[in-house]
Automatic annotation (TrEMBL), chains A, B, C:
Protein name per Swiss-Prot or TrEMBL: Rh family B glycoprotein
Gene Ontology biological-process entries: ammonium homeostasis
Segments passing through the bilayer: 12-30, 64-83, 90-110, 116-142, 218-239, 251-270, 305-323, 344-367, 387-412
Positions of region (Disordered): 417-454
Family, as annotated: Belongs to the ammonium transporter (TC 2.A.49) family. Rh subfamily.
InterPro entries registered for this protein in UniProt: Ammonium/urea_transptr (IPR029020), NH4_transpt_AmtB-like_dom (IPR024041), RhesusRHD (IPR002229)
Domain Ammonium transporter AmtB-like: 23-413
Membrane topology: Multi-pass membrane protein
Highest taxon in the source lineage: Eukaryota
UniProt main location, coarse: membrane
Length: 454, 454, 454
């Protein structure tokens, strides 16, 4: 118990220090300048993605923030015994990551006045970054304590911002929904952190991904929230009012086909039981992840249906055949299966986007060319040139994510930060765990006694 | 068990076939034309209801899609033991119905170019159609398997589109919130399917509607979602910016009065216990259903209060006195009580709308006349003429729904599609059923063993 | 049992009477005038707060209504054993309060024509009022029956409207997010009602605030909803499109810092266990409450971080040290801890707002001065004069709330309204209480038998 109290006090101290640091940095550098209209994205404003129309920043901001919380919070609640505890840790990560991302992303757009100007669009970018952090934490859930998660956030956010800046601003890549910058980056970063943190005894608990005892209610709710809000999140940065519903609709089509695909393949791959709620949630996420890059490039709806259908198949096959290999051969434990749900679809989405970029013609796109591929519209690049750059961004991001993840994992694994090896299953739990059956006091007490961060 | 696996494989095959079919039809016919601005609803665009202002399609689209999922998913979770399983089936139905509705509704607006153009408004129409399908499935929940549900969707969607086209486009009926086209149609279609599927042994399980063991948490959440999103859904197609909040506010007033009415009548009708969460959910739905047609016709708020108050009383009386008659005399099993929650209020809403149409004067409506009753505003019709057409639409819709439902039910009842009579309670469950008490592994296994689609 | 049935019938009668009364008053006085555009707030329209831009009323209205339901419904579900029952009572209160508030607030803006004109903005104001009523009910939850709650609503709403009119219209106070008019007023009103209703035996059940057996799932969901919607609610009345995102962002920053503060102080103050989900919910509410007044006054984000960080510390310290004093010395039972979550932060927010008002300069605010401090912008007042008035509003509101609460509590405590002293724990439950473990019929029946309003 004393050890648990000491751990919580260390966490308290870290939270205090981080918040103080953020307050000081905000006081020194962050302003709501007179230029930060909701939609304006000037070099002075801190926004790394194209700006929406003025006055339209508000609803998208809300959806994006919502998505970063709900969709992933519930995905991370995947692991049955960690129930509400995962959501608390996610909240802590989100509360810090949003502030830290505004600073880190602002660094790359430092205005001549030496200030970082924030507006609604800055929050959207910060939420995209937070989403990547949550994806990464999904890979290591249950095997890190909150202190390690906060430090992972501290290190991952600047790396995310750096990769995003290189891809979107320097290389002129189009990735409005984050297939590459968010899903793929977050997944592979997390997987490398997981690998660096591997412990021998973890193999004994190979049941971590066994969904036999999940509280499916959370997964069900999470799936519904994904359907409601993720399409808005994924299309939050598509520039023109004319383009926006296409990206949105493409995501919906992709998610619909992905869901039907789950019903197709699941009974074939998994013979012992019926479909699980979490698989439907994964199907929805996969459908959205693959549409991240291609969402605003697809000109016909059936392409979205095909992409979603294929991505879901790929994800399910990966979950069935690839994850065991990752685990046994490469020693990469993937608690929430982020490789199948975010990694593979993110890569597939990038390849689809590359293909579509190469096929883009001014006739087909018309006025939309300027918002989707501005450099091609200006004439600075050809469509195939754009496709080549889109393709090059893939290994670049994967390398950055892998290197960053390995380094971060090595740092997190130092003895000072690790919890005692005696109680690995108590890590990541900051909430007193109360079973859903709140009317059973005896079981509650027993659960409580055994589950506090001791 | 082998039988359950065979059933799931048949479902997998059907899903694959349906998705393939949809992909092919989309590839052949469906486009995002350059005309499909978010708000534009030209003859080329596929939208069966009046269009909102350009640029305003986006938030309504999100709400409508949300409503089709949440409100009904939780209503369908009414039946305790089916918990999360119903939501999965609903998701499957929604994922397919949305695609199929876009095609079916598009058929009636086939452009000269031979293409179906979709935009945000098309999605709203598709969601209205999906809502009707979910209402129908509420009548047969627990007595059909997912294959039958998918086939019911396959048949109901074109019939819905046909009825909607006749009413809104040919007869010039005003029904922006779907009292008649969605609620009444869906309810009576489902009831006739239920009648055609009746089995003698069902009478033994007359307890299906007994709410004694519901997971009220789902009903509570569903009620809250209804309050949040249904008014937006129901007013999603009111044309002018000036009209829109009136319809919205009328729905809120109607739901408020309907809720108070539940507290008034429930203790009188049901003496043995306190109010149930599902009754509050029903009250909210009833208040919205009755406002579907009249929502934008009511010029004073108190009319909405009266309508909601009366509709709720009617619904509760129907639940108490009419449902047993339907069940015993007419052999119509109504699992989720859709007749009381959607059928009766839908009919009442139509009658109220008819009355208000007859009373409509240019002085009272002013500029709004053109959006609510365009034909009357143009002078092609008198107000009483409009009222006469509104009234004629009622038996027309009921006949179409009843005939379509009977035919569909007869088809679904063929031996090849029916599950074995030994396990009727296992139908409609595609999810492994996990009780909310996820920490009780013994009970979980027992439940699992007894609840998979075997 | 007979007593429970009699109580439910009395409640039914009261609901019928109140709805009838409201219908009659609406029929006589309430109209959707041709002037009630979504955004217009003329003297004829019933809106007590500044109007947003035309056409932008719609999304804020939805968020505000949502917030009044969800955020507080779940906060009020704090008390474990009352689970879904509290939400039903909250729904009843909301359904009535919204209608009554429209009438009461409309009274103060009676147009020359003798009519009350309502629009979307009126609903926002009515929701602010409803929020205050829910806060007050949080103080007495578990110790009042639904009849007493409805009568409390009947009395509190006009007092709220009166206080709001005096502050915002007569004194020209700026309080767009309701730190003073909603949070402080609601909290202290409820506390005085609680004091007037005190009973000796309540001291025996000092465990009411013991969160040991809460259904944390509700608190978790409530927290997420707060993060999503409260910032929109709190900034629903900030006038200009340019100002709006600042208030919104300030609320987010305040909530983020408040959340981290919970992780800082909680392990220090509470040694026996880990953080509870409800504490995170409280942290989010606190961060929003303190930003109510200052949200649109803060020109730099770090001020919001500091305010949220401090407010959360204050709230936790109050919960640890002040609540026991309130309970033992002043005999004020505070079931949901509304003093710490709404009272203290509301007062702190008022003080911060006063300070910022005094520091306001035309240079710093620019064009925003006119929307935040219109009288100062016109030159009718100096900044320090405005600050003085802001400060004077505090004791005025507290006195009005305290007096009104005491009177109301005295009325509610009359013998005729009180439930039998034998079963105080059965008050406030109108829903049949079903445990979350719906698959356990024996426990269900036992719970049912013991939990109906008998």
């Amino acid at each position: 118990m004393a050890e648990g109290a000491a751990a919580r006090l260390r966490l308290a101290g870290l939270c205090f220090f981080l918040q103080l640091l953020t307050i000081i940095l905000f006081a020194a550098f962050v302003r709501y300048g007179p230029e930060s209209d909701p939609g304006l994205c000037s070099p002075q404003s801190n926004c790394s993605r194209r700006d929406p129309e003025p006055g339209s920043g508000y609803p998208r901001f809300r959806d994006a923030h919502l998505q970063a919380l709900l969709g992933f919070g519930f995905l991370l609640a995947f692991l049955g015994r960690y129930g509400p505890g995962s959501v608390a840790t996610s909240l802590l990560v989100v509360a810090f990551a949003v502030q830290w991302a505004l600073l880190a992303q602002g660094l790359f757009y430092f205005s001549p006045k030496g200030k970082i100007y924030v507006g609604a669009q800055s929050m959207v970018s910060a939420d995209f970054c937070t989403a990547a952090v949550l994806i990464s934490s999904g890979a290591v859930l249950g095997r890190v304590n909150p202190i390690q998660l906060l430090l992972m956030t501290l290190l991952e956010v600047p790396l995310f911002a750096c990769n995003e800046f290189i891809l979107l601003s320097l290389l002129g890549i189009s990735d409005s929904g984050g297939s590459l910058t968010v899903h793929a980056f977050g997944a592979y970063f997390g997987l490398m952190v997981s690998r660096a943190l591997r412990q021998p005894r973890v193999d004994e608990r190979g049941e971590q991904q066994d969904a036999g005892r999940q509280p499916d209610a959370f997964a069900v709710l999470g799936t519904l929230y994904l359907w409601i809000f993720w399409p808005s999140f994924a299309s939050a940065t598509t520039a023109q009012e004319g383009a926006e519903p296409w990206a949105l609709l493409n995501v919906y089509f992709s998610m619909a086909a992905s869901t039907l695909a789950a019903f197709v393949l699941s009974p074939i791959l998994y013979e012992e039981g019926a479909l699980q709620a979490a698989q439907l949630q994964d199907a929805a996420l996969v459908g959205a992840a693959v549409m991240g890059m291609a969402g605003e490039m697809l000109l016909t709806p059936f392409g979205a249906l095909v992409a979603g259908f294929l991505a879901s198949h790929l994800s399910l096959l990966g979950s069935r055949f690839l994850s065991p290999i990752l685990s046994s051969r490469l020693k990469i434990q993937d608690t929430c299966g982020v490789h199948n749900v975010h990694g593979l679809p993110g890569v597939l989405g990038t390849l689809v986007g590359t293909l579509l970029a190469g096929l883009a013609t001014a006739d087909a796109y018309g006025g939309r060319m300027e918002s989707v591929f501005p450099l091609v519209a200006q004439g600075s690049r050809t469509a195939s040139g754009q496709a080549w750059w889109q393709l090059c961004a893939l290994p670049l991001t994967l390398i950055l994510a892998a290197l960053g993840g390995s380094l971060t994992g090595a740092l997190l694994g130092t003895r000072a930060l690790r919890s005692t090896p005696k109680s690995p299953e108590r890590e990541s739990k900051v909430l007193r765990e109360v079973p859903e059956d709140g009317v059973n006091p005896e079981a509650s007490d027993e659960e409580l006694g055994g589950s506090t961060l001791a």
